[in-house]
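Lab meeting notes turned into a lecture example. A postdoc, R.K., suggested we walk through two folding results consecutively so the class can see how the record format repeats. The first protein's sequence and structure tokens come next.
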Amino acid sequence: MTIRPLMGLFLGTAMAAFSSVAWAEDVTVSFLTHWPPETVAKLEAAAATYAKDHPGVKVEVRAVPFGDLLTTLRSQAGQAGGPTITGIYDLWLPELARDKLVNAAPEANSTDVTTNWPKGVATAASVGGTVYGYPNEIDVYALNYNKKLFEEAGIKEAPKTWDEFYAAAEKLTNKDKGQQGFGMINSWAAGVVHPFASLLASNGGALVVDGKPQLDSDNAKATFDLYEKLIKSGASVATMGTADANTTGPFLDNFVSGKTGMIIMANWWESALKAGMGDRFADIATAPIPVGPKGDGPHSISYSWMTVVSDGASDAEKKAAWDFLAWFNGPTSGENGASAMGDLLQSMGILPSRTSDVAAFAERLKTPFLAGYVDVLSEARPFPTVLGGQEFTESLQGHIEAVQFGKETAAEAAAAAQADAVAILEKASQ
């Protein structure tokens, strides 16, 4: 028997023992999320299933818009009625851990995470080697394109290089039809920065290296130049790329309606495309990020979400919260060997991150749309999780948008973005 099955056997025994502990009094655990109503309903159903075998514990679900998630956690964590469990973007973890707003995972939960999740994903749920939560979804980026528009423009295959990408964007542009070749996103930090970072990674660069920003590197300057070139040529139209707080808006509508030929987006938006396009969703295909002149191959940016427990909750609440998360993310809580969290994520078309969930959903992940994302996962580059990461992201967003709307040249944006990033990260580390 290999070490991994032995560890799994030990871990299963340990988690079962942890779950069997009785509570001296009734405990209510509040679960804060940004998920939409249909997903909240699935989470509530899972909580009800857990409650049947865990008398004395009640899990109440609360949802707020994504834009309010971090501020709600910061302002209410540890207070009466505040969240016990919160689903967070992993970029926020370093600061939440520094400010002692999140509870370090107990040993059994920590071992569960480091044993049953890929190393990179488990690392993103950790600070200084300490695990702070359960990873759930993992998201990567790919080039999405409309096959029908490609055919009309005489383009036979997805672009593999930046030169092919720019040429395709020009061919797909039809001003008379209000059609842009490549859709950029604005008014949403992740939607602006992650596609840019994916192109940068595919040009051999990175946003941050060893804690130091690299936004004025030759690789990054070339990425800003590419954006400026697309805008100036009319192949990208900034006003067509607006997002709202719920990650919908013109950027989505224009792709759904066939007004955008290509866009770089994450796997989670599959459900939105299906809902908006119906049978026309069959026209959508995915491909790796085009490779820049300095790149060694296509690379996507990856990021993940995780569930954490408030450090300010009572001991009883924390114990109940970690027990629920162990069950919720465990391979026996869902169907066919998947976790209940995996079932929930798959209902949204999101890639689960637990190794056994990926195996359980292997057939579902072979769909033409999702297969393209699974293929790029191994070469993905994790978005840097550093102190000051959110402010860094929002600052870079501002400079990318300035290029989109003609307020800064590519050279100006690269220089200003680097200066701002240096100041932000230095201040955050003090």
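The second example is placed directly after the first for contrast:
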Amino acid sequence: MSYPSPASLLEVDLRPDRPPVLRVEPPADAAGWAAEHRQALRAQVTEHGAVLVRGLGLRDKEQVRAVFTALAGDLMAEREAFAPRTPYGGGLYSSTSWPDNQPMCMHHELSYAQRVPGLMLFACLTAPAEGGATAVADAEQVLRALPAEVSERFEREGWLLTRSYNDEIGASLAESFGTDDRETVENYCRAHAIDFAWRPDGTLRTRQRRAAVVRHPVTGRPCWFNQIAFLNQWTLAPEVREYLVDEYGEDGLPFNTRYGDGGEIGEDVVQLLNTTYEQHTRREPWQAGDVLLVDNIRTAHSREPFTGEREVLVAMAEPRVPADGRTREGKRR
């Protein structure tokens, strides 16, 4: 069976307000097509940070898993999830469980972990009636656009993620760590630089400090790489934040972020981060059968509010250990 030559993959549709789009004729064997064009597709991701492939006609989970594996090899198992997903086996997951009418603002997947996915893969089986785009933003551009006094403090100090696990909000202990065995969880935390404490009621509270700016493993250029805004209390809808604070107290929120020295991040800073992301956001509405490849270090992604049914499958691949975005002299590359 023959497919278009890899050179044809260079003919992506480039527009400033959306990710690059590659339109293809529906192949008889989508996984075979993906394997043959893997190198050219990955070159597009390296050049642009993301690429949307339209026309593969994916219809079910088995097809999606086969295409993802052809494009990325072994898929990662998720650990330290902040919200539940449905696992479908072999590294394939549902989208994160999140209210349809609430946005998931820009972030880099698992940027608070020590080993992060270098590549994110998304596939749409059912497109929503309205909204629901998985939008993207260039992390190099975002970093350059931030005021120096904001970015430099985060570069110096990093950022701190605090989490309180419960069975009501966010991922449970078992969903996040793959087990609720206390000793196994403690060993994982020790091995991954996570401070932890068990509360009298048996729930777990953790703290982990991570770099806010990292160097891209291929280009070496600094990228704004974190979930500072997304997991901060001020990004929550006001009524949601009020409920959570009343229910758990500010120190017991399911998740929150701080400066690396433990200082509180003001609402104005969180709004600035989200506004800067929005200024650099590119979006394209999903169509059934689409595949989106995202360089997780260079490119942030989000999920916009939607109406109607929406089924987008997700996988993570190419684990990386991010390198701090500063040189030994403390300057950006």
